[in-house]
Model the fold of this input.
Amino acid sequence: MQNHDDDTCTEQSPPQPPLRIGVVEDHESVVLGLSTLLADQADLLLVASAPTVDELLAITSDLDLAILDLRLRDGSSPTGNVQRLSAAGIGVLVFTGGEDSYLVRLAAAAGVLGVVRKSEPNDVVVQAIRGAAAGDSVITTDWATAVDSDPDLSIVGLSPQQLRVLELYASGETTNRVARLTGLAAPTVTEYLGRIRTKYAEAGRPAPTKTELYKRAVEDGHLPIPRSSHQR
Done:
């Protein structure tokens, strides 16, 4: 009688396909650097690069993320570039020298997932790309500073209690923990969070997720701007 004990194996989930990355950059050295940087990352695949957004989309729109330089030789606007990529269902991570805060503000207002300087260490850049490709917001000092200095940013009026709830929840506390710290009932905290999200949505600055609430709290000065990795 054949013994099947040795044939028994646990089922494993099939490996996930790598996240697909595109680059909009008109400096070949930067594209080469990104290609080299991502070559060792099994979960990230650089599939296309082009000097303009239109040329990238002509190659493929099957991308999880577009890495976008703000200052391109075709003179295109960051706002228009981000909007075209977003309309194609592609998230955008700005990769910039950071020399023009106005362009960074335009991109931030258009809805990018984050802003990363080209001078950041390789591991910081890879981490930012991985997070943005997965659809997560990438909170950096450059992004926060840009939106903090935007004179057109719509300020949302919150009551002192709502502000306290926002500060605690957006900084990482759970709903139950916020309730204990504020002396409110947990359902009341949930109600407050709903009202806060409604106010931001009405101001044209929606915050449906906890990460987005954190971004809004930083933008409005309720939470400190995150420290750069070089400051740690």
Remarks:
- The domain at 19-148 is CATH 3.40.50.2300 (Rossmann fold).
- Residues 228-232 have pLDDT under 50 and may be disordered.
- The chain is about 45% helix and 10% strand.
- The longest strand covers residues 44-50.
